[in-house]
Amino acid sequence: MAQKIISISTRGQGLYEFTGEAVSFVRANGAGEGLLTVFVRHTSCSLLIQENADPDVRIDLDAFFRRLVPPSSDPSMRWIVHTTEGPDDMPAHIKAALTQVSIGIPVIGGRLALGTWQGIYLFEHRDRPHRREIVLHLSD
Q1: Exposed end of the chain (fewer CB within 10 Å): N or C?
Q2: Tens-binned pLDDT, residue by residue, of the chain (140 aa)
Q3: What is the CATH number of the domain that holds 111?
Q4: Which domain does 15 fall in, by range?
């Protein structure tokens, strides 16, 4: 078993890939077979495994979620009560609830069992920059 906390600095809403850090962590710990659990320690961002070959995928996903859950200042979101931290805060919590904060990835033969085009992403849902903590937990 091994654990590590990594930090990702965001510049606002969007997807931030950290596959390389996860691969390095698994390699450094000499895992043969096991499970990497990835957990983000926040309530207004989430995690995704998504295509990492074409950057348009990230652009389209970000645009889709912005349309699905607009800021609380949008007339369609008048029902939102939690607005203390700005018009992007409650929508960020909703987006995080629709996605996930924890992902399990099998380790086979010392490597993450990701598909050819799969990458691991932090999905930032807030407008302003944040420093996000992600826990990597490797078990055999």
Answers
A1: N
A2: 999 999 999 999 999 999 999 999 999 998 789 999 999 999 999 999 999 999 999 999 999 999 999 999 999 999 999 999 999 999 999 999 999 999 999 999 999 999 999 999 999 999 999 999 999 999 98
A3: 2.60.120.460
A4: 2-139
Residues 87/88/91/95 CA torsion (nearest 10 deg): 180
Please name every residue paired with 35 in a beta bridge, in sequence order, or none if there are none.
106, 139
Amino acid at 15: L
Model confidence, pTM? 0.94
Return the structure tokens found at 77.
């979101």
Domain count, the chain: 1
Beta strands in 20-93 (DSSP E): 34-40, 45-51
